[in-house]
Automatic annotation (TrEMBL), chain A:
Keywords annotated in UniProt: 2Fe-2S, Electron transport, FAD, Flavoprotein, Iron, Iron-sulfur, Metal-binding, Transport
Coiled-coil stretches noted in the UniProt entry, renumbered to this chain: none
Protein name per UniProt: Dihydroorotate dehydrogenase electron transfer subunit
Domain FAD-binding FR-type as annotated: residue spans: 17-117
Organism: Prauserella alba
Family: Belongs to the PyrK family.
The keyword Iron is assigned to this record: yes
Transmembrane segments: none
InterPro entries linked: Cyt_c3_hydrogenase_gsu (IPR012165), Dihydroorotate_DH_ele_sf (IPR037117), Dihydroorotate_DH_Fe-S-bd (IPR019480), FAD-bd_FR_type (IPR017927), FNR_nucleotide-bd (IPR039261), PyrK_electron_transfer (IPR050353), Riboflavin_synthase-like_b-brl (IPR017938)
Keyword set includes Nucleotide-binding: no
SUPFAM superfamilies linked to this entry: Ferredoxin reductase-like, C-terminal NADP-linked domain, Riboflavin synthase domain-like
Cofactor names: [2Fe-2S] cluster
Length: 272, 328
């Protein structure tokens, strides 16, 4: 997570969340590492802004105590469907993997402040790693019908750990996959590649999620290109609304707990 | 119902209204039902998600005299059956609390219990003074705050110091004063009696249990503050025992708190001696859990064969009077 001193609270509207028990339509492997869960919620599908998240919890008695924050991967307002993607890493996501299609999931959302995309943005660069990519796919969804040129750099340990390529491609984004396995995800290599691609015609906005190293690279490129930079941040949360104060990032000097990731983020502006 | 009527020989009575069935009293404070949130586990934001005007009361996050930032991150971690938090009670201070309409709690359509804290007796009293008459229905004194005048231990570990604070708040408050005790006391009964002697209208039993979680890879606590408070289903048996001990020790009502997540849990605490309950951690995963519990309580009251839910309070049969024991 980025240090609070580098985070700027954006002005995106959080909208109106709701909570309900939503029917699960799909809960199946997306790759060796990740699973896709699709639930039916007309309200969340319509209201969700790009970069917002939901809190999800199985409704079984043996479920873990806390809900889990999940980025909204895609939403289909017409069909009333919302997709999230998760890796099974602990008891919470293990319990989530056991929810069968047809069963219900406790869902609260949409939550938080999403990405602020400029009107008539011409070029926008998304830089994500692992499951962090899933926080940015909704941006490409929103820009699919616009002239904006979207480029997505997707980073992961190997090809199997890289998500979102198909969704982003279907939204018209240029997709560049880089991996640790072939060395292409190394920051220096990626920096060189992005400078060659964009130095003459840089993006106006750069969005990132999922990696501190990539966040630092994005901040650096933002300064070089005078581009607006935004990051979606992950944090442990209990309530997702702000009242539990569990996800405070703090201002670094111990005088203030703000910002809260759930209420003020999860998307923040990066100070260059 | 049938059980009661048969057992008591009374003529069937007209069913009481739903409000009447669930009504409970905490001293002079009458609540439509026994369900309220635990301090820190509720916010006015929840009114957008779930009915809150059906709750017996709402309890605010603990308010201090001045702004305080709370503890460093990480503030939360999940453990089997519960969660640990070291949030550290951030507060915007009493002036902001008043300015924002009891921190946004006014106007929710249910009685507001204001939780107050302090690092010294004077701070508690200042919060009570400045709170004045703000439309709140009760004060809950959080005596689990570290007391800087007494070496930083929580206030309720020094019963004399706690009594001084509580009696000072009672003098300053037109509204009834509840005292929320921590679980880690030499004697919960003695602490509850001390609160009663100091003029408390009720005691809340109990706050979260001190605990920690260790990350062995990093050789670090999972919490930024090293230790935190354990809450959730794991603490329910511990809290039930403390509620029973406290209820046996005092004449004032006990508000039970610890791992409650269902209507049956509420009934367990009532039978153990609580007159009302607070729901904390369960709300995080199920924001509507308290409203659902309130909906389910009338049917449970009927199933348990009492006319009013308050009739369950303290009905736990002592072990030496159980029918099974007599037969043996």
């Amino acid at each position: 997570m980025s240090s609070a001193a580098a985070l700027r609270v954006l002005t995106g509207d959080r909208g109106r969340p709701m909570c309900e028990r939503a029917p699960v339509v799909v809960n199946a492997p997306l790759s060796d590492r990740y699973r896709l869960l699709r639930f039916r919620s007309a309200a969340i599908a319509v209201r969700a802004r790009a970069g917002q998240f939901v809190m999800v919890a199985p409704v079984t008695a043996s479920a873990p105590v806390l809900p889990r924050p999940m980025a909204i991967y895609t939403r289909n307002a017409e069909a009333g469907l919302v997709d999230i993607v998760y890796g099974v890493v602990g008891d919470g996501t293990k319990a989530l993997a056991e929810v069968a299609a047809g069963e219900e999931l406790q869902v609260t959302g949409p939550l938080g402040r999403g990405f602020v995309i400029r009107d008539r943005v011409e070029r926008i660069l998304l830089v994500g790693r692992g499951v962090g990519i899933c926080a940015m796919t909704t941006v490409a969804q929103d820009l699919a019908e616009t002239p904006a040129q979207v480029t997505a750099v997707l980073s992961g340990r190997n090809r199997d750990a890289v998500l979102g390529g198909e969704v982003l491609g279907a939204c018209g984004a240029d997709v560049l996959t880089v991996t640790d396995a072939d060395g292409s995800s190394a920051v220096d290599a990626l920096r060189g590649r992005l400078l060659r691609a964009f130095d003459e015609d840089p993006p106006q906005q750069i969005l990132t999620s999922g990696s501190e190293r990539l966040t630092r690279l994005v901040a650096e490129l933002g300064v070089r290109w005078a581009a607006d930079t935004q990051v979606s941040v992950e944090a442990h949360m209990a309530c997702g609304l702000g009242y539990c104060h569990g996800c405070a990032v703090g201002d670094g000097d111990g005088t203030s707990e703000s910002p809260l990731v759930c209420r003020d983020g999860p998307v923040f502006g990066l100070r260059g | 119902m049938q059980i009661t009527e048969a057992g008591s020989g009374r003529a069937p009575t007209k069913p009481a209204s739903r409000r009447g069935v669930l009504a409970v009293e905490l001293g002079d404070l009458e609540l439509a039902n026994p369900v309220m949130p635990a301090s820190g586990c509720f916010g006015p934001d929840l009114a957008a998600l779930t009915p809150v005007d059906t709750l017996g009361a709402v309890v605010t996050k603990t308010v201090f005299a001045e702004t305080r930032p709370g503890n460093r991150t990480h503030r939360l971690t999940e453990v089997p059956g519960g969660m640990l938090n070291s949030v550290g009670i951030p507060s915007g201070g009493i002036a902001e609390f008043r300015r924002t309409g009891l921190g946004g709690y006014a106007g929710l359509g249910t009685p507001v219990v204001v939780s107050i804290g302090g690092l010294s007796a004077r701070e508690y009293w200042r919060v009570a003074d400045e709170l004045g008459e703000c439309g709140h229905s009760a004060i809950e004194v959080n005596v689990s705050c570290p007391n800087l005048e007494h070496g930083g231990a929580t206030l309720d570990t020094d019963l004399r110091a706690m009594c001084e604070v509580v009696s000072g708040v009672v003098v300053r408050s037109a509204a009834p004063v509840l005292v929320k005790l921590s679980p880690q006391l030499h004697s919960i009964a003695a602490a509850a009696r001390a609160a009663e002697d100091a003029g408390a209208a009720a005691v809340t039993v109990c706050n979260s249990f001190p605990g920690m979680a260790v990350n062995v890879e990093r050789r670090e606590s999972a919490l930024g503050n090293d230790t935190g408070g354990l809450s959730g289903p794991a603490v329910k048996p511990l809290a039930l025992r403390l509620v029973r001990s406290a209820a046996q020790a005092v004449d004032i009502p006990v508000v039970g708190c610890g791992g409650i997540g269902s209507a049956t849990d509420v009934a367990e605490f009532l039978v153990a001696g609580a007159s009302a309950v607070q729901v904390g951690t369960a709300t995080f995963a199920q924001p509507g859990v308290m409203a659902r519990i309130v909906e389910e309580l009338p049917a449970l009251t009927e199933r348990l064969g009492v006319d009013r839910i308050a009739d369950l309070v303290g009905t736990l049969t002592p072990s030496d009077r159980r029918i099974g024991n007599e037969q043996r």
